């Protein structure tokens, strides 16, 4: 999309938003669609080429709006409202147009959530272990998200030393020695925050060697932080050097930020987990006002149990 195409699409978007509000009171407050109604409209595989934006905009009108609960509807009454103004919409547009990051919460949230899930899983497997003995592993090149997770959760953090001789990569031997030493001292390392593309040097921890060590330490959760480098995995020529096969085989969770190389507006930090049950077991709190028949039956995925916040944009 070039500037003039953006101008044209922008005019149309504003017109459609205005029309939406003009006709909002004539719509049903809640949708009548069934869970999974979009599935048949999605391609089995990602397309090789992008679509014209006009088709995407039309799909929003055709598929998304019919599935919405209209929070701005004059007859909408729930536990709380959501503030929405036309000035705010325009402010969002202006803020997105420059895309200067405010560094609010992205990969740091993903790491924190992974630590919470890993701690919960470890404590269920080893109920006699005290929290004071639990240890988070990072390296001397790991982003500050590792130390911050420890501070928030009241957990010890050990930064394993990596050297320039190894290109600041965490090697399997270093990890094994640390695990053996902590085991002798009664400490319980339960998660390793590995990195593919460190902020300070672009270092890549050796996930293949880490995976080999995990065979002797199956309770160690491996979270891979690939905040800026991970998007490069979309390019086949980079997958070997970035340890994609090892990540798929050994990582329990993986994070990358699409607002860096992914051509997506801030903030778009994505977290994948090998087993979502580990997250929901650790974070599920369901008061009566959040229960639903679909959620109780497991026919829908309730993403509020995947992260710290209740609401999502």
TrEMBL record:
Q: Which residues carry this modification: N6-(pyridoxal phosphate)lysine?
A: 260
The cofactor required is: pyridoxal 5'-phosphate
Is this entry keyworded Lyase? Answer: yes
Give me the Gene Ontology terms describing cellular component.
cytoplasm
Top-rank lineage group of the source organism: Eukaryota
**GO: which molecular function terms?**
carboxy-lyase activity; pyridoxal phosphate binding
Q: Which UniProt keywords apply?
A: Decarboxylase, Lyase, Pyridoxal phosphate
List GO BP terms, alphabetically: amino acid metabolic process; carboxylic acid metabolic process
Residues folding into a coiled coil are: none
Return the Pfam families for the record. Answer: Pyridoxal_deC (PF00282)
- Annotated family: Belongs to the group II decarboxylase family.
Protein name (record): PLP-dependent transferase
What organism is this sequence from?
Pleurotus ostreatus (strain PC15) (Oyster mushroom)
